[in-house]
């Protein structure tokens, strides 16, 4: 009788052939010793194991049948790659059924198909990914970030208010444009930039300490750095490790960018400075995994601050996270223990380093809508308290003010996070909003008494408070004003009101109107204050981009929600002109057509309504009529109330 055949893929063999093939599989002992296994039958021990008295065990290896992957099949059966899916942030962010993997739990000995063996690297990478290939380059932005206007509920609301269904495409493109700046476009250069001459190195050092905004926070003690640099340039380096290499190169990069911005174009200054920054970035891994040090914390902190500028990719999110982790590992978040025997100056320096990291990390959390990684309840590090000596760049007034504003920003992000607001209900949310607003007002009064600061008020460049530069004052103003927006947008943005479960009752009407008016007033102040922004390659992202775009979006929403007025349209025009100037002065490195789009939508609203000034009574703003549409439950109906992640924004960091 003929032996029945076994079909394996497209190959047919006999039972005897199958046994011979299985017999050739080496036993566990022979495989471990890397010797030839002479066994002829899988049911009998091999000669090697018999000679050594070992138990002959052969562990069979089985292959899982290859999963059916449409994307792989498509990429291997056509001469051109499949068209990428549209980067539409309004679509459901979950993979669609036709793009997910078809998982097969059947285990067999099927050989891989020929097309899978010759699949492209992209296709093979997609097979091993938990997401389809066109979703792995997406970035998450929380519901409280300025990009929430690109979320599904927000796009739906704007489209209904304006009657423009194509707004989803505009929002999608805007989110993608922003996210592409969060990553580098190319690998690091193979060649490293040579060290500058001694004369140039000193010039860059002077430019950094005298002009860079982060130098005012005292991450580096100038006399110490200059002693180190002097020894290095003289050929007698005190330290030749990766931390010193990164530290001096990031100072070169910052100083080079400042110096070249005076005489060269934005692009030239940014590109030349980036070469020095690449020198620092080249030892990034060694700062974290080699011989770690506090100098490494300083280097990572300055690298994070360096990339928080309009002239570079915005890498500060990851850099600041690593700086914070390394600072935690060194115990900088705690008060210095007495047994370390540190001098008063050493303790002061470590405190300055930590709080510089803290301010940056909290700013990034605020900007991205992501959770902060620093738990304030675990921080016992004292605030800096010593004024700088005559030759140091540290500014106690600026540092102290920024730290105090940043600590309130931290409480705002924690107490008004999307998760918190979606669970604690409107009544509790109202109480938290009022408490945080009172904290901001109290801080404003405190800093006015201490430093004569007028936070939230127009800046007079001809009459600055003592000990403050204009760029420091604008940064502080914008940090404070965006914190005020974060407190009140929870009520002022219609899709947020739905997120927290607000009903159509009149119970919360006064609170909503009050927050809406505060958001509008704050947005106007931010936009008008852009006249004090000078575009240089070292200009920070929070000042040049984040605060103005946040204000433009908030005022646009106010116009759609409450009705446009001539003054608000004019203010939007000011903001549009500002972003046009930003594009020109940065050689279109920062071009934001989204601003023009929302201004045009505001102008195109039908039946414009004249804005009515509110009547303030007992700190509650009352309006004669806030519009019927405001209270229509159908404006954001039930199908928009998906799970919390649907209120977030997922945008691409690079084209699919």
From TrEMBL:
<dbReference type="GO" id="GO:0000981">
    <property type="term" value="F:DNA-binding transcription factor activity, RNA polymerase II-specific"/>
</dbReference>
<dbReference type="GO" id="GO:0006351">
    <property type="term" value="P:DNA-templated transcription"/>
</dbReference>
<dbReference type="InterPro" id="IPR036864">
    <property type="entry name" value="Zn2-C6_fun-type_DNA-bd_sf"/>
</dbReference>
<keyword id="KW-0472">Membrane</keyword>
<keyword id="KW-0539">Nucleus</keyword>
<feature type="domain" description="Zn(2)-C6 fungal-type">
    <location>
        <begin position="26"/>
        <end position="58"/>
    </location>
</feature>
<keyword id="KW-1133">Transmembrane helix</keyword>
<keyword id="KW-0812">Transmembrane</keyword>
<dbReference type="InterPro" id="IPR001138">
    <property type="entry name" value="Zn2Cys6_DnaBD"/>
</dbReference>
<dbReference type="GO" id="GO:0008270">
    <property type="term" value="F:zinc ion binding"/>
</dbReference>
<protein>
    <recommendedName>
        <fullName>Zn(2)-C6 fungal-type domain-containing protein</fullName>
    </recommendedName>
</protein>
<dbReference type="Pfam" id="PF00172">
    <property type="entry name" value="Zn_clus"/>
</dbReference>
<feature type="transmembrane region" description="Helical">
    <location>
        <begin position="541"/>
        <end position="560"/>
    </location>
</feature>
<keyword id="KW-0479">Metal-binding</keyword>
<dbReference type="GO" id="GO:0003677">
    <property type="term" value="F:DNA binding"/>
</dbReference>
<dbReference type="InterPro" id="IPR050987">
    <property type="entry name" value="AtrR-like"/>
</dbReference>
<feature type="compositionally biased region" description="Polar residues">
    <location>
        <begin position="89"/>
        <end position="99"/>
    </location>
</feature>
<dbReference type="Pfam" id="PF04082">
    <property type="entry name" value="Fungal_trans"/>
</dbReference>
<dbReference type="InterPro" id="IPR007219">
    <property type="entry name" value="XnlR_reg_dom"/>
</dbReference>
<feature type="region of interest" description="Disordered">
    <location>
        <begin position="72"/>
        <end position="102"/>
    </location>
</feature>
């Amino acid at each position: 009788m003929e032996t029945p055949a076994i079909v394996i893929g497209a190959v047919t063999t006999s039972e005897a052939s199958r046994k011979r093939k299985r017999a050739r599989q080496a036993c566990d002992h022979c495989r471990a010793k890397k010797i030839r296994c002479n066994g002829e039958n899988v049911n009998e021990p091999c000669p090697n194991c018999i000679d050594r008295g070992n138990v002959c065990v052969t562990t069979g290896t089985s292959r899982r049948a290859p999963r059916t992957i449409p994307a792989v099949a498509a990429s291997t059966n056509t001469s051109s790659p499949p068209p990428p899916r549209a980067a539409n942030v309004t679509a459901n962010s979950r993979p669609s059924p036709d793009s997910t993997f078809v998982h097969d739990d059947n285990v067999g000995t099927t050989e891989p198909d020929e097309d899978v063996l010759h699949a492209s690297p992209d296709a093979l990478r997609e097979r091993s990914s938990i997401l389809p290939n066109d979703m792995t380059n997406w970035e998450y932005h929380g519901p409280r970030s300025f990009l929430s206007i690109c979320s599904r509920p927000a796009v739906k609301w704007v489209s209904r208010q304006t009657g423009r269904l194509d707004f989803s495409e505009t929002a999608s493109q805007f989110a993608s444009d922003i996210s592409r700046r969060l990553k580098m476009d190319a690998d690091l250069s193979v060649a490293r930039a040579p060290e500058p001459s001694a004369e140039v190195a000193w010039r860059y050092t002077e430019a950094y300490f005298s002009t860079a905004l982060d130098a005012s926070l005292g991450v580096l003690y100038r006399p110490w750095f200059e002693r180190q640099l002097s020894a290095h340039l003289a050929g007698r380096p005190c330290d030749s490790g990766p931390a010193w290499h990164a530290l001096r190169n990031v100072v070169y990069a910052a100083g080079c960018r400042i110096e070249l911005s005076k005489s060269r174009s934005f692009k030239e200054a940014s590109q030349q400075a980036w070469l020095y920054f690449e020198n620092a970035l080249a030892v990034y891994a060694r700062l974290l995994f080699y011989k770690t040090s506090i100098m490494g914390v300083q280097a990572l902190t300055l690298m994070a601050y360096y990339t928080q500028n309009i002239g570079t990719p915005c890498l500060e999110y990851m850099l600041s996270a690593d700086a914070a982790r390394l600072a935690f590992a060194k115990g900088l978040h705690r008060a210095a223990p007495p047994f370390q025997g540190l001098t008063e100056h050493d303790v002061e320096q470590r405190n300055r380093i930590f709080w510089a990291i803290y301010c940056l990390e909290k700013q990034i959390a605020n900007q991205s809508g992501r959770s902060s990684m620093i738990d304030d309840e675990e921080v016992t590090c004292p605030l800096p308290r010593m004024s700088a000596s005559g030759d140091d760049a540290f500014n106690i007034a600026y540092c102290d003010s920024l730290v105090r504003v940043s600590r309130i920003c931290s409480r705002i992000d924690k107490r008004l996070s999307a998760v918190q607001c979606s669970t604690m209900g409107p009544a509790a949310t109202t109480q938290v909003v009022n408490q945080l607003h009172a904290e901001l007002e109290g801080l404003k009064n405190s800093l006015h008494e201490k430093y004569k600061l007028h936070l939230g008020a127009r800046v007079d460049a001809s009459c600055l408070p003592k000990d403050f530069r204009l760029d420091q004052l604008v940064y502080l103003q914008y940090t404070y004003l965006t914190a005020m927006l974060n407190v009140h947008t929870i009520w002022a943005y219609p899709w947020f009101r739905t997120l927290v479960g607000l009903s159509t009752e009149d119970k919360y009407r006064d609170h909503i109107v009050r927050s809406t008016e505060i958001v509008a007033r704050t947005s106007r102040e931010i936009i008008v204050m852009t006249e004090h922004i000078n575009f240089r390659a070292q200009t920070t992202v929070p000042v040049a981009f984040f605060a103005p775009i946040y204000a433009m979006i908030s005022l646009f929403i106010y116009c759609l929600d409450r009705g446009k007025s001539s003054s608000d349209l004019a203010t939007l025009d000011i903001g549009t002109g500002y972003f046009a100037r930003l594009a020109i002065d940065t050689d279109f490195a920062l071009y934001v057509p989204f601003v023009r789009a929302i201004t045009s939508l505001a102008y195109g609203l039908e039946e414009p309504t004249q804005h009515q000034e509110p009547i303030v009574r007992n700190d509650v703003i009352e309006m004669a009529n806030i519009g019927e549409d405001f209270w229509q439950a159908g404006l954001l109906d039930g199908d928009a109330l998906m799970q919390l992640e649907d209120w977030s924004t997922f945008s691409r960091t690079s084209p699919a």
